[in-house]
Design goal:
By secondary structure, the protein is α+β, with helices and mostly antiparallel strands. It is 64% helix and 16% strand. The chain folds into four domains: 2-48, no CATH class; 51-149, Helix Hairpins, CATH 1.10.287; 168-214, SH3 type barrels (Roll), CATH 2.30.30; 220-319, Alpha-Beta Plaits, CATH 3.30.70. α3 packs antiparallel against α4 and α7 (234-245) packs across α9 (285-331). Residues 110-151 form the Mechanosensitive ion channel transmembrane helices 2/3 domain. InterPro entries: LSM_dom_sf (IPR010920), MS_channel_1st (IPR049142), MscS_beta-dom_sf (IPR023408), MscS_channel_2nd (IPR006685), MscS_channel_TM-2 (IPR011014), YbiO_bact (IPR045276).
Length: 332
């Protein structure tokens, strides 16, 4: 321990003196003084250059003005977007819920911020004297490369944006595009997910959605064709159908109006078809048709049972009359 305490002071003293001697031998005092004076003069000239400072302050002022104007533009456009989304939500022209309206509004505001901030950066760089030509050319080459490499992705995103913005269909709608039909479960900027009535999930790139049939945008029409035997009169058939569907719009909330019996739709030598139509809620046509068919089927069964019971009663009455007549003849 005592050796270390003796060595360290010796090391510091020896090498400190060596460094001082090196500085004294290699540096000229006059050069140091002249360098300090030159540096002081340069700094003072820079600090007292009125033209440079006026130019600098003017550039800073322009940058501040550009920044303020950009912020004002962004705020005004965001207010317009918010107001537009509120109006579309109030007048019901877009069948979008509050969450989807908010999503569309935020998407538009983000795009606005990106565009105006990009313009702001370009203007600031221009005021700072930076040549924008190489930057713009480089950005153009990069954008061209990305565009060629991701054409389908860009197409999907653009199509998805317009699907959401134009409200071509919404979550919960039943649509058909090409051979795919199902309920819309999710709409993204790149893909749309459908679920068929069997539970099959279809994930479709938005760029592949060209023609869409939306079954949920307007009221549906339930159409039921009822076959009747040619022996049954038209008046009896129409009366039977009307009795079967009477009051069905009260028991089924999906039916908007009393179903109409249009009459004979087609006929052959053995039967004719009576058509029934009913206006119902969107995408409920199949359910309403099934309900109408059930009512008519029960009415036809009741009619058949009534006819069978009537025929049985007539047969028994005839047999009773025949038996009484036979007994009277035997007694005579």
């Amino acid at each position: 321990m005592w050796e270390i305490e003796r060595v360290v002071p010796w090391f510091e003293e020896e090498y400190s003196m060596t460094f001082i001697h090196w500085l004294a031998g290699n540096l000229d005092t006059d050069d140091v003084v002249q360098g300090a004076i030159h540096w002081k003069d340069a700094v003072w000239k820079w600090l007292t250059d009125s033209a440079m400072w006026s130019t600098f302050l003017f550039v800073v002022l322009k940058i501040v003005i550009i920044f303020i104007i950009t912020r004002i533009f962004i705020r005004v456009i965001n207010k317009i977007i918010d107001k537009s989304m509120e109006q579309k939500g109030d007048n019901g022209r877009f069948r979008l819920n509050t969450r989807r309206l908010t999503t569309v509004g935020e998407l538009l505001k983000n795009v606005t911020n990106i565009v105006f901030n990009f313009i702001l950066i370009m203007l600031v760089l221009s005021q700072m004297g930076i040549n924008l030509g190489p930057l713009i050319a480089g950005a153009g080459v990069l954008g061209l490369a990305v565009g060629f490499g991701a054409q389908s992705l860009v197409k999907d995103v653009i199509t998805g944006f317009f699907i959401i913005f134009e409200d071509q269909f919404a979550v919960g709608d039943v649509i058909q595009t090409g051979t795919f039909k199902g309920t819309v479960e999710m709409i993204g900027l790149r893909t749309t997910r459908l679920v068929s009535w069997k539970g099959e999930v279809y994930i479709l790139p938005n760029g592949s959605i060209t023609t869409v049939t939306n079954f949920s945008m307007s009221n549906a029409l339930a159409v039921v064709d009822v076959p009747m035997k040619a022996e049954r009169s038209l008046e009896e058939a129409v009366s039977l159908v009307k009795q079967a569907i009477q009051g069905i719009e009260e028991s089924n909330a999906q039916i908007l109006n009393m179903p109409d019996v249009l009459g004979v739709q087609s006929m052959t030598t053995s039967e004719y078809i009576v058509r029934v139509v009913a206006e119902c809620m969107p995408n409920t046509g199949a359910l309403v048709e099934r309900d109408i068919q059930n009512n008519i089927k029960r009415a036809l069964e009741d009619e058949e049972h009534r006819q069978a019971a009537l025929e049985t009663a007539i047969t028994l009455e005839k047999e009773d009359e025949s038996g009484r007549k036979g007994g009277e003849k035997g007694g005579a």
